[in-house]
Amino acid sequence: MGACDVKLTLKNERANYITSLDTLRGKVELNVNSEITVENVQIKFEGFAKTKIEVKERVHNGNSSQTRTQIKRESHTLVYNAVTLFPPSNVREVSDNKKFTLTPGKYEYDFEIKVPLLNQCADGGAYGSHQLSVLPPTSSLSDLFNIHYLLKVTVRRTTWYKANIREIKPVNLRPFDPIDEIIAFSQPLFLRKDEVFKGMIPKRIALTEKPTGPESYKIPEKKSLGGKSSRFLKSVFGGQVDEPNYVDSTIVPFSLEIRINGPYLSMGQTPNLSLFITSKYGPERYKGIDNQTSGLGSFYLHHLKIDLASSICLVAQSARKLLLPEYSIFHQKDLNYPIDLANLQPNPLSNETSNSLPYELELDRSMFEGDAVVRADIPPTCRTCNIEISYKLKVTATFVENIDSWSSKKIEVQAPVTILSGIPAPEEYIEMRQIPPHIAQQVLRNYPPEMFAGGNNMGVEAIFSNDAEISPKILTGEKVDGNQLPSYQSATQS
C-alpha cells in the first residue's frame, strides 16, 4: 500500500463503448494513507494513432554490404483534454502556491469531459502532414498499428524524486454513423457482370400446345460424336438411316446483378443486398409451345461467397506499408440453387438505369440472410494522418449447367463500400448539421431500439412514430444534394 491509492469510475450509460459528442461522466476517488504534497490532481482524456513499420535497408561498407532492419514509428495525438480536479478553480485563481498538502483520508472528485467530433492532430505535432477527420475507432492489428483512447488520472508530486501516482482506464471509442452522408448517397448501388453458357440445349420439347401426358413431349439428346460413322455404315450396308433427334446447341447469356441499398454496411448486421439474374431476353425464349419451361435456361447456383476485401495503408515517417486482409461474410458450397430463365420477370428498373437489363429473376435471400453477417470485430472505415482503412464488397458466384457438371462459370463483382459502426447519430449532431427531423427519422428508423440507450438521440418514441412526416426523396431513393448540408468544419465552428 502506497501513500495514495487512486480509483477511477466511469458512469456512462453505455457499458461497452463511447462515441463522439458523448459527455464522459465519472468519479475519481483518492485514498490518502499518509500525508502527501502535490502540485495538482488531473484527469485527462487522450487518444493516439500509432504506426510501426520495419524497413530493410542495404548498407554498403567498402567492398561489402549487409541488410539492416530499421524500425520506423509515427504517433499522432487524436485528442487531448485535461481537467484539473484539485485544487479547485477558485483556489487556483487566487493562489500562487504550487504546493498543496493532502492529509490522510478519502477524497472524491466528480468529472465531466466532452468527447470532440474531430481530431486535434492538425493543431500541432512533430510530423508535417496532418488531416482533419472524425475521431477514428479504437482498433489495432498486431503491432503494426494501434488506435487507442484512455482516461488517465495523475496525482502530480512536487519533487522529481517522488514518482507521480497514476490510474489509467482504456476507453473503447466507436464513431457514430454519418447520417448526412447516408442521406446524400441514398441511391442503390448496382454491380453487374455478364456471362454465357454455350452448348446448351432444351431439356424438354413440347410436341403439342396442350400436353396430355408424357407422350406429348420428348427429351432431346445432343449429337453423338460417333453419329457420322454410324450413319455411314448403315448406308453402306443398306440399313435405314435414322433421323437425328437432337437440337442445335444454343447459347444462354445472363448476368449476375447485385443491388445494395446504398454503399454502406454496418458491423454485426446482414448486408442489405439482393441478388438477381438479369437477361436481355425475355422468358418466352426459354419456354416451349405449351408455354412451359423448355429447360434451355435451366442451371444452378453452385457456390456463393461474400467477402470484405480491406485495404489498410500505414505511414511511418518516410515508410509506407499496404495490408490487404480479407474477411468472410458468407461462404457456402454445394448450394445447388435452381435457376430457370423461363421464370424471368420484367425489370422495373430497366428504364431508370441505362445499364440495367429488361428482365430479372430475384434469388431467394434466405440462402444467405441468416448467416451472412459483417464481422463486429473489424474496424469501421476511417482515416487518420498515418492510417487509412477502406473496404470493397466482393461477391463471387459459381454456376453450373447440371448438378454433376465438371465445368462451371465463375462470376466475381466488387465495389467500394463504407463500413459503419451501426451507431445512430446523436441529436446534437443532427441539429449541428441542420438536418430536418422528418428526414433524420427515416434513417434512424433502421436502427434497433436498443441502440438509442441513454437518450442519445431524438427519442425512440419520436423516431418510430408513424405520424412522422416522410420525405419524398427518401422514399423514392432520390439523391439528396449533399451541398445543401453544412460541412464538418462549418458545423463545428458555429
Automatic annotation (TrEMBL):
InterPro entries on file: Arrestin-like_C (IPR014752), Arrestin-like_N (IPR011021), Arrestin_domain-protein (IPR050357), Ig_E-set (IPR014756)
GO biological process: ubiquitin-dependent endocytosis
Protein origin, superkingdom: Eukaryota
UniProt-listed Gene3D superfamilies: 2.60.40.640
Pfam families the UniProt entry points to: Arrestin_N
GO cellular component annotations of the record: cytosol; plasma membrane
Listed SUPFAM superfamilies: E set domains
Molecular functions (GO terms): protein-macromolecule adaptor activity; ubiquitin protein ligase binding
Limits of the Arrestin-like N-terminal domain: 9-159
Protein name: Arrestin-like N-terminal domain-containing protein
Organism from which the protein derives: Wickerhamomyces anomalus (strain ATCC 58044 / CBS 1984 / NCYC 433 / NRRL Y-366-8)
Lineage per the UniProt record: Eukaryota, Fungi, Dikarya, Ascomycota, Saccharomycotina
